[in-house]
């Protein structure tokens, strides 16, 4: 099924890009979300390339630019300067942040590395000297402990799916799940206090459930058992009004709804920010070491997890107060 989806979506893409995306799926085992990211980035680049090189009308709608006619000859002509022109375009014309541009650089590097080392249609890799934009480190946005409690309390008992929505918010705030991970939870993968999920990069990970999560799931299951569910979704934990597995957009909307009802900024707090909240609360109140937090969150690199070591202002404040010179000055 996964391969058929890939083939259908690749119909209007350059042949080499289709081959690359299938390689990522079949050989590298990348997730559909990851592959979609590559498809979007590289399609954007090829549309820009045709416009930049005058290979299509200048007044054409950007998304209407046809790219399935891009062949090996054109690919072989691509130079380093073309990539920097593209990065300038997405920064100035599409307001891409340094994070978004860095992702596009990573996509370009992966694709042209494939063309150079695997399909061998180019004799040198034009992205070998392509630099990635400098990314300024930002502390994660998260809810405080009191705000988290307010959010949980905001799930109205008059809501038709109160038990489901409360369970969703509880899992976000306690387990630090990604949005896609939460939507993909299957009942058969819940065993006592453990939950097995497929995380980023199709990697299997065990999530441990605390008492709050176990209770929320148990109470929701009473509601779920009375729901009419399509046969193919009988194993899906979270069910939507359409009798099927809940989708990411629906979860985003319900989180936004309860964030608003809790009196918080709905533009500031998304499901991903709830993941940040879970990680921050575990680090701040649970004395969780950074390696354990890395495992809990499913981060491939410890550097990704280390952002949570910089968010605890209270600890920093106490550290400064604990300086023995502080006491010396107070006694004078």
Secondary-structure map:
Layout (H helix, E strand, L loop, with lengths): L1 H8 L5 H12 L5 H21 L19 H5 L3 H13 L5 H20 L27 H9 L8 H14 L3 H5 L6 E2 L2 E5 L5 E5 L2 H14 L23 H14 L9 H15 L4 H8 L4 H4 L7 H9 L2 H7 L2
Antiparallel strand pairs: 1-2, 2-3
Describe this structure in words.
The chain has 332 residues and is mostly helical. It folds into 2 domains: 2-117, no CATH class; 145-312, hpI Integrase, Chain A (Orthogonal Bundle), CATH 1.10.443. It contains 16 helices and 3 strands. The protein has helices spanning 2-9, 15-26, 32-52, 72-76, 80-92, 98-117, 145-153, 162-175, 179-183, 211-224, 248-261, 271-285, 290-297, 302-305, 313-321, 324-330; strands at 190-191, 194-198, 204-208. The chain has a 3-stranded antiparallel β-sheet with strand order 1-2-3, with no helix packed on it. Helix 3 (32-52) packs across helix 6 and helix 8 crosses helix 12 (271-285). It is globular, with a radius of gyration of 24 Å. Residues 1-8 have low confidence and may be disordered.
Which CATH architecture of the largest domain? Orthogonal Bundle
By CATH, the superfamily of the largest domain comes out as: Intergrase catalytic core
Assign the CATH class of the largest domain.
Mainly Alpha
Strand content: under 5%
- Would you tell me the overall average pLDDT? 87
Question: Over the alpha carbons, how many angstroms does the gyration radius reach?
Answer: 24 Å
The total beta strand count reads 3
What is the terminal separation in angstroms?
A: 75 Å
* Helix and strand sequence: HHHHHHHHHEEEHHHHHHH
- Unreliable residue runs: 1-8
Helix fraction, binned, reads 40-55%
Note the overall shape. globular
CATH fold descriptor of the largest domain: hpI Integrase, Chain A
Total number of helices: 16
How does the helix and strand content classify structurally?
mainly alpha
As laid out across the biggest beta sheet, the strand order is 1-2-3
Tell me the count of domains. Answer: 2
Largest sheet: 3 strands, antiparallel
